[in-house]
Specification:
Elements lengths: L3 E6 L6 E12 L18 E3 L4 E4 H4 L9 E24 L2 E13 L7 E10 L5 E6 L9 E10 L5 E9 L3 E6 L15 E11 L8 E11 L5 E4 L5 E3 L5 E5 L8
Antiparallel strand pairs: 1-2, 2-5, 3-4, 5-6, 5-10, 5-11, 6-7, 7-8, 9-10, 9-15, 11-14, 12-13, 12-15, 12-16
Length: 258
Amino acid sequence: MKHEEIRSKSLLSGHSVKTGVVLLAYLASVDGSRAEIPVNQWANPVLASADSVLGPLSDAAKLVSGIYTDYCKLNAYTTIQYYKSVEISTRGTLPVESFQATIVESGVDPRNPSNLINIKTVKNRDSSGKITTTVDTSPILISKIGNVATKCEKLNADGSLVSRFELTIEPTLINVHVDVAKYATYSMRNPTFVYVELSSAADILTNCSSNDKATDWNQVTRVCPGVQNIIPFAGKNVLARTAWPFVDIGYSYTPPAK
């Protein structure tokens, strides 16, 4: 069963979003017999009740008689609820020291939730102490999301500073929305919750960039369809390579063995 990815426009923050589409319910039998299907918790036909997703058809059909063809699709997409990063590059030791600070803030303003914010501020100070500031309010400022606090510095033999790089990204708040399902034949109510898995290629940042390494980032969260679900980015010093992770929808989740 293939996942479809559809790029659309987010009404929340003005950013592009990725939509993962997963077929969640397909009931097929005119004589009450069960369809035999493989058990796959992430891409499997299931039966949903008023309170939860019951599981794969091969199990759920035991609870229902006279099943006719029925199906639904749940669409999932993500937007950035709030993102803030601070990047500081410093060269030299006072009193002859220069630096550049870049601050990016985007999404729903936590200080005033009725406002959207999307701004990049760059402050420069040269070795003579002159400070210049530039502001960018382009529609799309975020290219990566994550949860980072890292610093790398190089010192002279006497301990004075040659250069320092600091990067801090507050745990990005990701808004995950799962559309309400529409059941064709029986008008069964939507499940109270489903599981979503967010995933992306990522980098693990260390105290020096030369030791960074590539990884795959993913996290699984239980969410409620039809409502806003705000999920903090999990993983320390992990930087995803895209601002909009791919979304898979599932009816159950078993943590991997440690």
